[in-house]
Design goal:
By secondary structure, this protein is α/β, with parallel strands linked by helices. The protein has two domains: 123 residues, Ribosomal protein L1/L10, rRNA-binding domain (Ribulose 1,5 Bisphosphate Carboxylase/Oxygenase, 2-Layer Sandwich), CATH 3.30.190.20; 87 residues, Rossmann fold, CATH 3.40.50.790. The strands form three sheets. Strands 7-1-8-9 form a four-stranded antiparallel sheet, covered by helices on one side. Helix 2 packs across helix 8. The chain starts with 5 loop residues before the first helix and ends in a 9-residue tail after the last strand. The relative contact order is 0.27.
Length: 236
């Protein structure tokens, strides 16, 4: 079992591990117990009653966080011709319309946050699957990252504004970033509400009852704080 430093143990002492906190109270506490000397990422972790082995109990969707993620999002776009020009004008950091970027990725380079592709480039993207797939960077229509040329600018804008993809993992959990510890409590709460609404709207057909069992918020270095999953402020 991993050991923790004194600051972590002091922070954990301030958290009632049996309590389901109101979302605002949980985020206030999270900011209070933050002790790292960098701007930690705040994440939400959902435990569900879904069975990841069942096709009708899968969740995979996207949400645009209203207050963003608090970081620069680096975007690679796989496009060619006029679509590649549009991508550059829309602020893409890298455009893979030549072999240079593709070969760089084949060599193991993944120093970017989002990959967007037009359908006609998916043959090229497919060859990079063994590199992009394990890192969650593979363009996918469900995630809004395989788009027609007319929609490239919007896709880039959303990605940079704070669009995140979330999915059910093999242990029936969902994890997602909702901002930085430097955000105000209200901004974090708005992002949390948007995320929770998106998860509920993505409810799969085979989901049993109240399929969200537990909600926990935590920053990069802090202990988790349990949130009441059915508090009125996150069930709007």
């Amino acid at each position: 079992m991993a050991s923790h430093g004194n600051k972590y143990l002091e922070a954990r002492e301030k958290v009632d591990r049996e309590k389901l906190y109101d979302p605002t109270e949980a985020l206030e506490l999270l900011k209070e117990i933050s002790f790292a000397n960098f701007d930690e990422t705040v994440e939400v972790h959902l435990r569900t009653s879904l069975d990841p082995r069942q096709a009708d109990q899968q969740i995979r969707d996207v949400v645009v966080l209203p207050k963003g993620l608090g970081k620069k999002v680096t975007v690679v776009v796989f496009a060619q011709g006029e679509a590649a020009d549009v991508a550059r004008e829309a602020g893409a950091d890298f455009v893979a319309d030549t072999d240079d970027v593709v070969e760089k990725i084949q060599g193991g380079w993944t120093d970017f946050d989002v990959a967007i592709a037009t359908p006609d480039m998916m043959g090229t993207v497919g060859r990079l699957g063994r590199i992009l797939g394990p890192r969650g960077l593979m363009p996918n229509p469900k995630a809004g990252t395989v788009v027609q040329a007319d929609n490239i600018a919007d896709a880039i804008e959303e990605a940079k504004a704070g669009r995140i993809e979330f999915r059910l993992d093999k242990t029936a959990n969902i994890h997602a970033p909702i901002g930085k510890i430097s955000f105000s409590v209200e901004d974090l709460r708005e992002n949390l509400v948007a995320f929770m609404i998106a998860v509920r709207q993505a409810r799969p057909a085979g989901a049993p009852g109240n399929f969200i069992r537990r909600v926990t918020v935590a920053s990069s270095m802090s202990p988790g704080v349990k949130v009441d999953p059915y508090a009125s402020s996150i069930t709007l």
